Structure formats: structure tokens, C-alpha cells
């Protein structure tokens, strides 16, 4: 051992070192003490041949502070430190490897105890590639959809909240249970208007009073008398044409024809011209016409909030409730009024009448009462295997004023058949959806999409993550959708696009919540005239479709099914934004042109400089549209609709906050209308208000452009 120690000592210092000695001495001139540390080599020089050390001299050459040659150079010290550190690192690594080896051995022992064949579980999709090709998915859907299994879920009467509606809801619920979709009933207590059974609505013309069976929910109530005036379909263009004819509109009772736009739009347009009441009639032989005139959706007495039992929010009404009377009338009464009209000749395109009306007086009496109804939305879910918290909603209206075969029965049957087919594909066909599918059967659709809006308002409060919405609602009008989801229609089918209207059941999802949505319908060469009437029966629809109802219902199921499955199948959702490119370009050009015209005649617009932020958004949209799907930021495109909701207006006052397809002063349509009012020198319009609305709408676009730019660190003054 001594030899090894000596060898190691020579390696580092060149001299042997055996031990050290500590010598504590006291300074004779004071109380301070010091410690002297000497190595054995130092002692050898001090000790004589007999081993006795020389006498200590405080100030001598052998004093405690004398520097002695010991063989310690700076280089030797550096070597000593480096070697010590190296030995420490090597020891640490050896200990770590030994400890890890023990853990691996313990883990191997535990794994050895597990069974070789684990219990079978559903394989979850985690990669970018789908587990089933899209072509195979389409083929599998086509195999499942069957005319023999398409169930007729019609009933004699299933008005929202009635016993017939509840019975049909229970039938849908039982089907969803049979398909193992874990269904549930979403219950709401909503307030709607109904006719007063003791005091019916009536219209008096030339001394003859006729009671009307049909009615318009949410109309103002009371009694008004005024001169009758024909206004064609009640569109804004129709009223402006009457104004060009110098026709007095204020205080008049206008007669309009059903169609082209919703009842609510007709009444709202009439109210803007200070009309006192609106009468609406249908086509020949239609004596009962039903609908609503709320320019909005959901329960108008709890706007922005869901209606639950025993829950009452602040007393507030929707801004979309009309302030004037509205009533539907029979074709017989409309024919008698039209035949008696005198006065100015109508425009050439208005072929239904000979005269527009002069001094013929009509009295309108509306006695609707407000009632509370319990409604049920029935929902079932097929859970996704990768992103189960992202939902695709597939819904259809269940209620109707009467039989409602085209309005709701076919759509409900298609919804249930798709639920059966897709659930079978998942359980037995090997299809594994990435995202979840929610099948929804809505109630109170005829009162203004009340059921779907109430459920949506619950979701907004709960911050649900809804990727997109498809509402497969069968009836005669054209199919409509938001621009972002249109790619799905164009990709799968040859269809035409028209802007979504407020009467579409998907409208609140898009305009209220900013969820990409689509509503589609099949059309014929002529309109189906029996919607919202007791004549909407299976027989009438069969005649209108040349007895092809079953075939067209399966076609509808293919359209809705393929769109739904594509949204839950694809790893990346390739949304198309080109529709907004065109829309922004049109609005930008229109606003710029009108402002330049006003700057020539109105000094208040002289210093209004339009910074073309709209074009900046166009550039951002174009940039994203040109990206390949794999290069798109995850979730960027579906967020476009939500980013186009104005953050500067209250959801209570303006629930449809979408600046392009919403309603209110914050929309670009309203901004263009204000410029037109300036041109017509309408004193009601305020210039400062216009500038504020333009600035807020422009800044909303700015925020959307920023979100499309992607990484926040990439933003610069060009966006």
C-alpha cells in the first residue's frame, strides 16, 4: 500500500507525500494565533539525523511564513484538479449505468408477468394517414343506405310542443338507443305566440269581416286600419319601386305575396317604410298559411341565453321582434282585395295585379297570445377515435305546423337512416371516425329555429368545440351555406351556391357562433307551394316530384352522409376561402365608389380616407387559399368564420354578429346601405356613426387577417 501511495504521489508531484502535520503556535507579541500546515517532506528538512527538530525561531529561516520548495507548480495543481474531476465523472457514470440496469431488469420482470396476448381493444388512429381510404368509405356508405330501411316517420300533426311532437321525439330517441348512440333529450321551456282560441285574428275589407285560421307568431298585437297597397313580394327593391312611383307608404296596410324572402324579412322591410300592417297570401287554393315574423332565431324573450325551466334572465326582448301587425290571409280574401284595387298602374314585372291600390281601407286585428311550451331536442353521438371533443353536427327539423311531410318528415327519416348506416359502418364495417358526429333532431323550427338555437346557446356557455355543422333539411328552397364550407359541396357534387338566409336552420350556427355551416335542399323547376300549410302531405310531395320521393330522399342521404363522413375522415380539413375573396372585393369596390361620389358633393366625406384594409385581408385570404392542405396551420381555416364575428357589438342586441352574413349596423351590407342613404340625403343617417361602424368593421377584418397570418411573430405592417 505504501508503495502504491508513493507511486501515485510521484505521478502528481514528483515527490512522496505520506501525511500532514498541523502546528498551532501563538504569536508572542499578541493574542492572534495562526495554523501552520506542513507536509512530511518539509519535516524531513527540519529534523536532524536523530529525529529531533531544530529549535523554532520566530524570525528565522525556518519560520512559519517562509516559502519552501515543495515541488508544487501551477501546472501540477491544474493537473490535480482535472484528475479529481475526471474521477468524479467516471464514478457518477458508472453508478448511473448500474442503477439503470437494475431498473431495466425490474421492468423486464414485470413485463414477463403480463399475458402475451392483451385483451382486444379498438385500435385508435394516431397517424396522419386514415385507416380507410375515402373511396372505400363512400362505397361502404352506399352499401348501407337502403330504400327498404328508409323509415317513414310521418304523423298527422306534430306542431312544436304538442303530443304529436313528443311522440315523434320518443320514436327518434328509441331508434338512437337501438343504434347504441347513447342518446339524450335536451329539454327547454320556450315562449311562443299562438292564436287566441276565444278571440281569433280577423281582417275586415269593404264591410266584410273574415276570421283567419293561419297566423304569424311574434306579430305585434292590436287593431289597425289603413289604405291597402300592393307591394309584390315585400322586398326592399319592391318598396323602393313604389317610392319611385311617388306612392305614400306611411300608415298603409300592404299586401304581399309569399315567397322569395322569409315572412320576417317582409315585415321588417315594411316596418322601415313606416307601414302599419302587413298581409301575406299564398298561391291558389291555399287558405291557411303559418309562420313567424321574428327577425332572428331562438326564444326572442331570452336572446343569447338558453331557456331552462325555473330560469328567468333579465326582462329583455329580441331586437328582431316586429313593431307592426302581420297576418296571413286566405287566397280567397287576397283574390277579392286584388280584384278591387284601384289607383296607379303596377310595374311591368308585377303581373299579379292590375292596380296598386288607392283609398280602399282594410282593418287588421291580431290577437295572438304568448304561451310557454316544453320542447325536446333528441341527440345521439358516434364518438370519434382521435379527436372525440371535436364535433360535426348533422341535424334536421322534426316539428311542423301540420303534416309537414316536405318540411320535416323526409328530413327526419333521412337523419335516422344516416344514424343507422354510419353506426353500422363503425361497428361492423371497420370505419373509424377521427372526430365525433352528433345527430340532432330539432324541435320548434317553425317558430324560428328555436330548438337548435337554444341548444347552441347552451354550447356557447359551455365552450363546446364544434368543427362544423351540416343540417340536412328537406324542403323546396335552394341550398345555401357559408362560404368556408362550400368546398365540400363543390368537391362532392355539382351544386350551385347562394348566400345563407336567416330562415335557414344552419344560420344561427354560422352568424351567431361563427361555426362553418351548410344547409342544403333539392329544388325543381318550380317552387313547391305547400310548405307551412296543411296541404304539405306525402301525396302532394309525390306529385311535385313525379313520385320520386324515396329516390330523392336517398340522394339527400348520400349528400349529407358524404359531407359528414368527409369531415370526420380527413386528417386535414381543406376549407375553401375563395368565396370571401370575391365578397370582400365587391364590398371594397362598392364602398370606395360610393365614398368617392359623396366626396364630390358632401364636405363631411372630404377627409374620409379609406385605408384599404379590406384588400389586406384579401391578400391574407389569398395566401392561405394557395397553401397546400398540409401547409395550413391547424385550425386556421375553420376559425375564419369565428374571426368574422364582430367583437364590438353585444350578442344580446345584435346576436348575428357576422360582418358579412349577419344582421345589424355592424355588417358591411348596413355600411353600404348607409352610404346609399347619404346619397339620397336621408337625414336619419349620422355621419359620425357611419365612420365608427366602418372603422370597427375594418378592424374586425384586420383581426381576421392577423389570425390567418399564422405565427404572431410573423406579423408585420403588411398585414
Please describe what this structure looks like:
- With 719 residues, the chain is of the alpha/beta class.
- Helices cover 37% and strands 16% of the residues.
- The strands form four sheets. It has a seven-stranded mixed beta sheet with strand order 3-13-15-14-16-18-17, sandwiched between helices. Strands 5-4-12-7-8-9-11 form a seven-stranded mixed beta sheet, sandwiched between helices.
- Helix 15 packs antiparallel against helix 16 (613-625), helix 15 packs parallel to helix 18 and helix 18 (668-679) runs antiparallel to helix 19 (687-708).
- The longest helix is centred in the first third of the chain and has 39 residues, at 74-112.
- The two termini are 79 Å apart.
- The model is unreliable at 1-5, 7-70, 101-129 and 471-494 (pLDDT under 50).
- It holds the Pfam family PA.
- Keywords: Cell membrane, Endocytosis, Glycoprotein, Lipoprotein, Membrane, Palmitate, Receptor, Transmembrane, Transmembrane helix.
- Homodimer; disulfide-linked.
- Belongs to the peptidase M28 family. M28B subfamily.
Quick overview:
The protein is of the alpha/beta class. The chain has helices spanning 2-13, 40-46, 74-112, 134-144, 163-178, 236-244, 263-272, 331-340, 405-428, 450-462, 486-492, 507-512, 538-544, 549-569, 578-601, 613-625, 639-643, 668-679, 687-708, and strands at residues 20-26, 33-39, 184-194, 202-205, 208-211, 216-217, 222-230, 253-257, 277-281, 291-292, 325-328, 361-366, 369-382, 387-397, 435-442, 466-472, 480-481, 517-520.
